[in-house]
Amino acid sequence: MAxxxxxxxDLFVAVPRALAELLDGxxxxxxxxxxxxxxxxxxxxxxxxxxxxxxxxxxxxxxxVHSVTKTMTxxxxxxxxxxxxxxxxxxxxRYWPEFAAAGKDGVLVRHLLxxxxxxxxxxxxxxxxxxxxxxxxxxxAQAPQWEPGSAAGYHSLTQGFLVGEVxxxxxxxxxxxxxxxxxxxxxxxxxxxxxAAEHDRRVALTVPPPGLDEEYTAGSAAADGEAGTGTAIRxxxxxxxxxxxxxxxxxxxxxxxxxxxxVQSAMACSGTVRGTRLLSPAGCxxxxxxxxSGDDRVLGMPARxxxxxxxxxxxxxxxxxxxxxxxxxxxxxxxVAYVTNQMREPAADQRGLELVMSAYDGLLGLRA
Length: 368
Known about the structure:
Blueprint: E1 4-8, H1 14-24, E2 29-36, E3 39-47, E4 63-64, H2 69-82, H3 109-113, H4 132-141, H5 158-171, H6 175-187, E5 192-193, H7 235-238, H8 241-245, E6 253-255, H9 257-268, E7 272-273, E8 276-277, H10 281-287, E9 292-296, E10 301-305, E11 310-312, E12 315-319, E13 325-329, E14 334-340, H11 351-367
Helix pairs in contact: 1-11, 2-5, 2-6, 2-10, 4-5
């Protein structure tokens, strides 16, 4: 069995066992964390940080968690809303006047957070993703594909720029700087939106699905999702230095399971983690208010969206291209996070769900 490092409460022995099984089954590396009341009951890792399986995955290894980054960007917006600086029901143009172009004067901030703004596709060159002003100017000039608020279509790359520019207009800081100053810094969380060169040595590059190479591109997990007109993003792009340095707040966050679980514990614990209050209980509840329920026209499957989080019964969270996942269980004041450098084809990837389920026996045991 694969060698699993770290620590875990005896009630949660199924979690490291499940991670070991994934590594024994061919995965390269990954980490899993389960936090309850803002403290780890599981913090484990294993495997390798490189495709050649020569560099062990360490306690401080970082990986691109792709769309799990969206939950971090959403948290920044929720913090501002809780402070009264941002009104989710306000037009985006109140904060970003140029955004009113091309019939978008009726787009509300909550539409950005719930994938209902009608701007799901990134239509520019990949290189423009690394230029914040160029990327946001492109989106400000773009016309919506549907009446905002009337339908949902997953904004895989665009959501981060849209929400991030609102954050920037309000605070005068980039979303990466705001997150570092107001969220990660106070919590001591090792998560980054815009990764500095000093951390490169700790990065585990993404490994494409078995049998595929770095030209592999992102796509829908469902066969009947709309093709869209967006620019294809390759594994090669996500592994580039330019991607790490840029702030692509829907997709370029770097962290490990521990840091993901620590940050999102704020949402599980009514806004306060380890004595640090990020937002109020009401501010957390705002995130779970359903904004859309129905078929996502991009993903080609049913979806329920709150403000920046997917809604799954009484559980909330989101996953990322390649397999990383965070799920939040406010009733148990718990978070389960999984990150990995090993991609699988989305339609066949159940790893995150398997690890979440492996944690439930332990959570039930804590309640007993």
